[in-house]
Every structure is written in structure tokens, then in C-alpha cells.
Amino acid sequence: MEKNNPNMTTEIAQLHVASPELLQKRMIVTQTIDLDSMFTKDVTSSGSFDLRQIKNITFGKLLEAMPIPTLLIDTTHSIVFANESIAKIGGDPGAIIGVPFSSIFPTPSESQNAETVLSQIFLDRKTNVFEGLIQLGPKMLWCRVNLRSLRLKSKRSVLAIVEDLTAEKKKLIINQKYQLLVHVFPIGIAEFSLHRPISADRSAAEVINLVSQAELVGGNHEFARIQGHRGIESVKGSSLESIFPFDDHHAEFYLGWIKQHFPIRSFENEEYDSRGRHRYFENTLVGNVKNDYLLGFWAMRQDITHRKQSEEALRAARDRLEEKVKERTAELLKANEHLVMEIADRERAEHELAKLVGELQEALAKVKTLSGLLPICASCKKIRDDKGYWTQVEVYVRDHTHADFTHSICTECATRLYPDLYSPST
User: Fold this and answer.
1) Distance CA 388, CA 122 (A)
2) Which of 21, 44, 235, 324 qualifies as a cystine partner to 39, CB 3.0-4.6 A?
């Protein structure tokens, strides 16, 4: 059958418009792939062909060889052909033959949408593309479905080419969430694009020059505000060196960033804004590196003026406190010295007092005193000691006191004892 048609290879998948009669009636242009030229007249003269046998013709073999999952759908909206690549999205080529096309969409809304789109293609025969969830196996995949009208004499069908966009969809969702996060983040974030990828193995001077010329391609409102602009659009196209500190003072930072293959690194700087106010910033670079090539990078800026001012105020307060502590410590040391001296003086005084008390106690111990009742003889006037012996008064007093006696004689005794020598008149 293929040998009887020499023009077949040039006419495969040729795009045709609908018949003139139909155009006159409906005045619309259709986009239908005409497969008539792929068959001999004896095959198509009846106007009928079993689409399930499509794989036996060249076009079917072409579809079978395609690395993209491909389906063929008849006017009953049933799948009549599936190539081997359908397995890439979890389907069994043999098992899905005869099932409704809309049944491969797991949600009612997407199933209904697929049915509606398919009906529209059979009606106006125009190409249509839509995206949705498809489930041919245990996993649901996000796919793009390209639908194209086919015509074989009176037989019409729809060719469905399915692209698995799951990875791209996830990436898109992540990027959307990331972009949302970037825009609500309280730190200024900007994306810079390089004119070409840069290898870290190139000379540092060359890399620094290329990095300095990197252009800002996106960012959030906070980054624009920090730069004194109302929106990021007014900053787009600016080079890194026109926005970030890029003088000789910060050359060491960029050299270290390059030598370490563009890791996350930060540095602080101070500058004056458009109003002449002294501001402090923390700057961070994050390289987008793939296979040791820098493809681009993110730059983040955070206004840390309040933090620096707080740190400075805290440092000044700490210095004042340390000074006061030093002063107070000196006062306490001086007071302590006085206290130590006073304690030493007091200890010396107490020592002297104790010594004096000891001496006094010793002196008192040596002092002999008479006190209390003394038993004395009523006749001879002798005194009885504590041992019961009677002794002369002068002896007792001498033994019990420090007094001593000198003897004399009173007038009365002298007259009585020595009347010859003493008379009452003398």
C-alpha cells in the first residue's frame, strides 16, 4: 500500500482547509490534517477506515515512534490509539483503548472541560490546547494536551499529544511562592543577571569586572525603597557596582567570595542616603552556581541603622557603667582600706585593753583587802583566822593587807602604865 503512493512522504501530516462547500456554508477556516493521500483509492473509496488499525500505516508508525505520549480519539470521544510513550505518564497503551478520553482526567471539572473542548474541535475543527491533571496510573500529573483535528475521507478523529508539565508546574508554583515570599520579605532582595556564565577558575580581576557589570533584573519593593526609589522597575538595568559598595575598601570581600566559589557571604557598610542621613547596611550575596559556573546571583540589603544605633547606645551605656563601676570600685577600695585600718586600730586597741585588763586583774589579785565580819576576842582583842587560830590584831592585819604597823603608846596607856613618867596633866 505504501509503495503505490510515491508522493506519500511529502504529504504526510499536510495541513488542509475544509472543503469549499463547507467553507461556503459556514464561512470558517478549519485546521485539519488530511490523511487521504496516505491511502490508495481502493482502500478509501468506501469512505470508511478502522482507526484502530492506524498503527499499520505510515502515519501510525510515525505516531508510534514519537517520544511524546500520543492518543487518537474518535467521534464517540473514545481513545482508539495510544503509542508506547503513553507509559511515560503511567498509562498502559493497550489498557486505555476504548475508554472515554474524559475519563483520564481525575476531577469532575477537568473531565467536563476535556469533553467540552473535544466537542468543540469536532465542531469547528480548530486546534486547541489546554492544561489539567491527568491520571493514568497511581500518580496524578499536570499535563498540557494539544488537540488537532484529523480527517480520513468521511472519518474524523482528534489527535491528542500529551506533554508532562508536572516538574515545570511544581517549579512554577515554587517560583510563584518564592516571588511572593520575596515581595513580602522585610529585607531588600534583588536578582542580578550576568552577560554570560562565569567560571570561578578565571582570574579574580576578570570575575570581579564581570560581576560588577551584572544587571538587576528583578527584586522587591523593599530593595527599591532602600535605594531611594518607589518601585523596583525604576532600578532594573542598574549594575551591581552602581548599587552595592564596590570600592577598594570592599575588594577583599569580593575576592573571598570568588575564591570560595560564590557562597553566601555578608558584609556591612555605612553610607549617606539622599537626605544626607547616616545609614548602616548589611549586604549579602548568594550565588546561583551550576557545574562550577556562576549563572547569576541574589543580592540582599538590610537597613541596620537602628540596630547599629542601639548597639552604639548600648556600648556607650556599657562604657559609662564600666566607668562608674571603676569609680565606685575605687571608692570601695579606699573605704575598704580605711575599714581595714580601723579594724587594725581597733584590734590593737582591743589588744591593749585586754593587756591592761589582764594587768589590772593581776594587780587586783595581788591586792589584799579585809572585808566582812572578823571574829575578835572581846577581852584580849585577838582575831581568829579562817583556820581557827587566834592571832594578834597587828599580825592578822599585816598578813591580810599591805599595811604594816609602827608601835607607839597613847596618853591613857602611858599614864596608866608609866605613872611616874606621865601624869594626866602632861
Assistant:
1) 158
2) 44
| Residue 295 CB partners (closer than 8 Å, separation 6+) | 194, 197, 288, 289
* Distance from C-alpha of 20 to C-alpha of 15, rounded to nearest angstrom: 15
Helices 204-212 and 251-259: crossing angle in degrees, nearest 10, is 110
pLDDT in tens, 49-66: 455 555 555 666 777 777
Q: Are residues 13 and 95 in the same domain?
A: yes
Q: CA-CA distance, 144 to 114, in Å (whole number)?
A: 12
- Are 18 and 94 within one domain? yes
Same domain flag for 12 and 140: yes
Which residues partner with 215 through β-bridges? 193, 239
Specify if 341 maps to a domain.
no
245 located within any domain? yes
- Neighbouring CB atoms inside 10 A of 379's CB total 6
pLDDT tens digits, 255-280: 888 888 888 888 888 888 777 888 88
The answer to whether the CB of 118 falls within 8 A of the CB of 1 is no
- Whether residue 161 is found in the same domain as residue 196: no
Q: What residues does 294 pair with on adjacent strands? A: 198, 289
List, as one string, the DSSP characters of 64-103.
HH-SS-EEEE-TTSBEEEE-GGGGGGT--TTTTTTSBGGG
Q: Is residue 318 part of a domain?
A: no
Q: Can you give the pTM of this predicted structure?
A: 0.42
- Cβ contact 77:101 at 8 Å: yes
Nearest Cα residue to 266 out of 250, 278, 277, 279: 250
**CB-CB contact of 221 with 183 (8 Å):** yes
